[in-house]
Amino acid sequence: MIALRNYSENVPAQLKGFRWLLRSAGKESSLLWRWKFQTADRHARFDPNKFGWPWQPRTNSWVVPTAFAILALNQLSCTCDLEDSEQRIRRGIEMLLDRVCPGGGWNAGNGVVYGGALAPHPDDTAIALLALKNHSDEPVVPKSLEWLEGTATTLSAPWSLAWAVLALAAYSRNVRPLVGFLADLVGHIDIQDTATLAVVALALDFERSLILLAS
Questions:
Q1: Of 72, 106, 109, 144, whose CB has the highest number of CB atoms within 10 Å?
Q2: Which CATH number fits domain 11-214: 3.40.50.10320, 1.10.760.10, 1.10.490.10, 1.50.10.20?
Q3: Best CA proximity match to 93, nearest among 145, 128, 44, 54
């Protein structure tokens, strides 16, 4: 939907995708599962009333698909008879804010499990920060940005570094040294998967890429 947003002839397909996203939710959105997570299954600390999007239907919410869904739904330029869009986006944002790690940043799913704080991941953190760009006044955002900025200089995986570049650039951080390192890094390794190649390409051309991701 992000890729198709400037193609007016594809509006029907886009609306179909938006409607599917609005209907999709983590299984903790159902009353039975909310009761389960609030009473019997308390291993992971999170509020099941604040649900996002799953990787697969009928599974729990995770950070990355929730962030991607928010970025996609932010492309809506009108209500388009999708009255629940603002409320659904807000619920997803609440889920991200609820799942943040205690020291800032995001893990794949929850920030605390079995009473222990989980370490954040750079890629999950970067993608969540992109989704929260319009909510920079939330205290967890600057805290997570600080963590990501400090961690980015230690990254040697093109996937994580590329996402870090995009997120930090979105918040007007100076990423040119990181971009230079990324360009040098990918010049010395053979990247085999198209997903990493795509994200690296976006990061190397971050100024134009952020226009695509902007809402």
A1: 106
A2: 1.50.10.20
A3: 128
